[in-house]
Every structure is written in structure tokens, then in C-alpha cells.
Amino acid sequence: GATDIVYSGASFFQAASHSRISSAADLKGFEAVRMVRDLARRQNSAALAQLAARMASAGHSGAADPFEKIKGLISDMIEKLESKAAADATKKSYCDKELKESTEKKAEKTSEVEKLTTRIEQRAAKSAELKDEVKELQSQLAKLMSTQAEMDKMRSTSK
């Protein structure tokens, strides 16, 4: 009989006394609630646990068809999850777009830094080259001035 059916450690009779299971539909409803609760435990999902509680409440409400209310609860939860997923997808696409733009800007700036570094190195080399030329020209100028002074001295002594 009914006392022989075992359900999660409790007999069908015990479950029926606690949950008021009196028909096959009630049993199916109890089974659905138990499955959702088990899933909530396995997934660590507060939303599923809340759904299971609402389903159990709907099953005890004495409505003509508690499954209609349960279907409505499940549909509501699915809509909420879909809207949350859509919002998350929107956030993710925004973040992906921003990350792509940031990566591109970083690459541009890195390229610009490399170009400027190259230009600085070229200018530093040119500066060193010009400084060497200035030293050489100063040396030549000093020699020229020395030669000029000697010539002036010779001219003044020859007069």
C-alpha cells in the first residue's frame, strides 16, 4: 500500500501527512518541488530555492490547478533570468568594446612612443655630430687666428 513507497527517507504516508498529498497531481507537484529544491542545493542557487518555496506555497494554496500557478512562477523566473542574461550580455559587450578600444589606443601610443624615441636618438646623434664639427671648426679657427697673429707680427716687424 501507500506506506510501502519510500520518499527521501520518509514513507509516502509520512509525506502525505505533512504535505497533504492526496492525489497523483499532488504527488507530481511534490516531486516537482523536491526536484527544484535539490537543484537549488546542488547549484547553490537562492533563486531556485525561492522558486521551490513559491511552488510549494502554490501547491498548498488550494487552487484548482496548482500547476498553472507553478508554470507561471517558472515562466516569471525564466523571464527574469533572460532579462538578467541580456543585461549581462550588454555589459559584457560594452566591456569588450572598451577593452578593444583601450588595446588599440595603447598600441597607437606605444607606436608613437617608439617613433619619438627613434627621433630623439637620431637628433641626439646629429647633435653629437654637430658638436664634433663645432670642435673641429673651433680648432681650425684657433689655428687660423694663431697664423693671423703671426702674420700680423711679422708685418709689424718688417715695417
Strand arrangement in the largest pleated sheet:
1-2
The number of helical elements comes to: 4
State mean pLDDT (0 to 100 scale): 82
Structural class: mainly alpha
Strand share of the residues? under 5%
String of helices and strands: EEHHHH
**Major sheet summary line:** 2 strands, antiparallel
Q: What's the total count of β strands?
A: 2
Shape: rod-shaped
Spans of 5+ residues with little confidence (pLDDT < 50)? Answer: 1-19
Explain this structure to me?
This protein is mainly α and 159 residues long. The chain has helices at 12-19, 24-43, 46-60, 66-158, and strands at 6-7, 10-11. It is 86% helix and 3% strand. Strands 1-2 form a two-stranded antiparallel ribbon. The chain is rod-shaped.
Quickly list its features:
2 strands, mainly alpha, two-stranded antiparallel ribbon, 159 residues, disordered N terminus
Structure, briefly:
The chain has four helices and two strands. By secondary structure, it is mostly helical. A hairpin with a 2-residue loop joins strand 1 and strand 2.
